[in-house]
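Issue: ligand-bound run for 6-O-phosphono-beta-D-glucopyranose - logging full I/O for the record.

Environment: standard queue, default settings, no custom constraints.

Inputs:
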Amino acid sequence: MTLGKDFLWGGATAANQYEGGYQEDGKGLNAIDVLTNGSATEPRKVTWIDKNGQTGFSPLVWGKEFSVPQGAKPALVDGYYYPSHTATDFYHHYQEDIKLMAEMGFKVFRLSMNWARIFPNGDDQTPNEAGLAFYDKVFDECAKYGIEPLVTLSHYETPLALINKYGGWIDRKMITIFENYAKTVFTRYKGKVKYWLTFNEINAMDHAPYMGGGLLDPTPQNRAQGAHNQFVASALAVKAAHEIDPAMRVGQMLAYAPIYAYTCDPADQIAIMEEQQKTFFYSDVQTGGYYPEYRLKYYERAGIKLDDTPEDYELLAKYSADFLSFSCYSSAVVTTHQQAAKADGNLGMAGVKNPYLETNAWGWATDPHCLRLALNTLWDRYHKPLWIVENGLGWDDKLEADGSVHDDYRIKYLRAAIKSMDDAVNLDGVDLMGYAMWGCIDLVSNGTGEMKKRYGFVYVDRDDLGNGSLKRIKKDSFYWYKKVIASNGSDLD
Ligand code: BG6
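Outputs:
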């Protein structure tokens, strides 16, 4: 194995799943703060209050079927459990957690900034100093151990006030509001943070439009406009970062899964092509810098009209992302043969079951080759540096009576993933900046709101209903990953 000496090994988290402290030091609410817990079979719910003061909820399912009744506003409602409020309490454990990351040898720690911690209403005149000060402490702690922060500006954390005021990302005003937020934090953390991502899994606008864009009525028209506004906001963030500090690098973040055809029926190959276009649209614009023809044709057919300006397209072309980062947990399978059984996977992107692969308890397949395939496809298409910023295995880990956690299944998954990634670099010549394992310290699951869907190298004592001491406990994989990093990926045993 010959990964470069500067290869950025590490782990990834998101504020809404990890940080907690949901109302501390002036933080406002965000989209996920009004999202309840769920399970593998029960969707999470957005709670709301309507004009007459009646409360209710809308189940959050992947795709388009979600909507909040006309005039109702997402809000906290008594009697529900909201896992983001404490999550696994990074807010009060950041020193301990970063020390654990340092012990594993992390070179990079991906976290997201809780936008409403900086701007509680999203469009406040001045930022919340206490919120800014919190991240100063976090970045200083990282610097102590030589850990590079990789900061996502918005990981499903649109401030709730912006959703209720503007309908989320469907309104063009969001572009300047986001630009102001980006400029504020770029200026504040200049010299402390070099690597940034704008929107987590920007294609969530199609799969999870409430999470991705705060959309309450995700029609195709609204999703197209929401995506357009985020693209322009992203380009403006790239521009601002380069102006504020030419050393800053701002990347795109895409949810990606290689797609296989279930059969060799040519109709299945066309289905793959069309499915891939839905994802590539997001990277063609944000990383490639142009709107692809297949998408424009679709807009024409669907009667979708964008509220746009000629300058938007100049910005997109001039300030495309510096690198392309992505999440990849598994592959997906598509088919026109309807008898094939439906599968589960990240953001519901899995298609149908792959008979060659095993799955975890949530039905997510484990594919040993998906990273090599993903890396080659994205490299061939854009020739921009790539970064794996999410990959990992969710499992209901058992804490033994002696305080150990034997997660050999996770080690097996990660060993295959790292081997696959290494093949892409060493056999295929892909330019890869780093690898960040998702949920490096246990956190709340995004899809189900559960704690028991754990990803971490470190177990956190907390259950699905918020009970537990929040104590941190090293799993077997902790020691394994430490060895992997120390050997720069050559010792995977
Ligand atoms: C990605 C998200 O979709 O997958 C993360 O960026 C999420 O926020 C991760 O946690 C894993 O999904 P889940 O549903 O298992 O938490």
